[in-house]
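Quick one, tokens below:
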């Protein structure tokens, strides 16, 4: 089955140029389709903000059944790559299990999040791909292959930008279910954000700082605490008071948010920022994000504040999060604990044409790595300096896809031919 009505990304920021989108009903059909094509790219729930999924032809596995397979002894779960995190999370919670971390949107597919290095937050939490214990994919010949952590190049196969094949299933680490509360602190002075960054980011299991950059305070700090891990929850944060459940300012943020204000609840209803049964984020938006070495996080934010007057007029909100270091070749947190500086922009692409190069120039001294699935201007020459294992990834890609079946303009632009 296929359609020629290929459409756009979820926020409408990119219109796909593919002539055809295949929607297979089974793994065997997907393998047959991939084997028969000269060029093909995978697309998931369309939550990227660039042309990473685009190509002459696309294939999507979002219509396949999740086919969840639980291995309690190994503490893993296997699931179809097109399954949304929210669907898997609900299935696991019903059986007493949980994921260690989730992104802000439970609406995204597990395969798409893995391929692009998508993440949540937390000093001790890696990007979502670090939980992946096994990958199944369809290679350029249409063969279904399985890889696990014993494979010597597994770290290059997990976040792979769709360049190695069509990911069909993922095996993910799990743990027993737990509860989380979200506490919101209002108006944290910038002096504390910059001067006490490590303490602020360590205030909970997962911490997010929200700002628009041109104000004397960060408007909100969202601290997510695990009830089975965190000994106590702060009542204030460097003078920033806690906002309580029922506060009109919290309600004004929107009914699509998960419950805040210190009310405990299941992990799957607190770790994401947005409810799975509601429209996520703003909707009509563009997103960018940059990862800097945690050691340089305060300096990078201080440098960005020098552009505050240019950033603020085009911004909906900016979110600052942390991630643990990992060994995944194309991870934005490869070999360095990182501070992730995120921008949710008004849908004004012409303004970003001039603004993003300015931001990337300011962040260049900190070796900022752009999020693969969001909007940025950096190209392959720079990426080669930011990712030490990029030559190894290119060699792996050339072996697994010698004819460039899974290549597209995006890959040629950001990692080279």
């Amino acid at each position: 089955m296929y359609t020629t009505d290929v459409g756009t990304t979820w926020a409408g920021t990119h219109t796909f140029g593919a002539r055809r989108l295949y929607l297979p009903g089974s793994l065997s059909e997907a393998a047959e389709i991939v084997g028969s094509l000269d060029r093909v790219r995978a697309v998931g729930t369309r939550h990227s903000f660039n042309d990473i999924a685009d190509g002459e032809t696309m294939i999507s596995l979002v219509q396949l059944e999740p086919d969840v397979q639980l291995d309690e002894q190994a503490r893993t779960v296997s699931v179809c790559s097109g399954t949304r995190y929210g669907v898997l999370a609900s299935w696991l919670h019903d059986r007493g299990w949980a994921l260690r971390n989730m992104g802000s949107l439970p609406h995204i597919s597990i395969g798409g999040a893995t391929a692009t290095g998508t993440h949540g937050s937390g000093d001790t939490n890696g990007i979502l791909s670090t939980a992946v214990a096994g990958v199944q994919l369809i290679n350029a010949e249409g063969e279904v292959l399985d890889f696990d952590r014993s494979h010597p190049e597994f770290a290059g196969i997990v976040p792979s930008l769709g360049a190695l094949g069509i990911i069909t299933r993922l095996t993910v680490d799990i743990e027993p279910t737990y509860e989380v509360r979200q506490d919101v602190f209002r108006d944290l002075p910038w002096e504390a954000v910059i001067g006490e960054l490590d303490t602020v980011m360590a205030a909970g299991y997962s911490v997010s700082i929200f700002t628009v950059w041109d104000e004397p305070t960060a408007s909100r700090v969202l601290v997510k605490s695990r009830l089975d891990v965190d000994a106590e929850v702060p009542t204030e944060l460097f003078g920033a008071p806690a906002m309580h459940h029922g506060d009109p300012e919290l309600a004004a943020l929107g009914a699509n948010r998960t419950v805040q204000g210190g009310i405990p609840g299941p992990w799957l209803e607190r770790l994401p920022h947005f409810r799975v049964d509601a429209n996520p984020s703003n909707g009509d938006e563009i997103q960018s994000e940059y990862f800097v070495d945690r050691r340089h996080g305060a300096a990078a934010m201080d440098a960005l504040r020098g552009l505050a007057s240019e950033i603020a007029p085009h911004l909906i909100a900016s979110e600052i999060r942390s991630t643990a270091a990992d060994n995944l070749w194309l991870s934005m947190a490869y070999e360095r604990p990182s501070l992730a500086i995120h921008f949710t922009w008004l849908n004004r692409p012409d303004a970003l044409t001039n603004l993003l190069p300015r931001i990337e120039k300011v962040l260049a001294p900190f070796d900022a790595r752009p999020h693969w699935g969001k909007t940025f201007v950096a190209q392959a020459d720079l990426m080669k300096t930011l990712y030490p294992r990029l030559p190894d990834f290119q060699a792996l890609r050339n072996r697994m896809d010698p004819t460039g079946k899974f290549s597209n303009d995006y890959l040629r632009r950001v990692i080279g031919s």
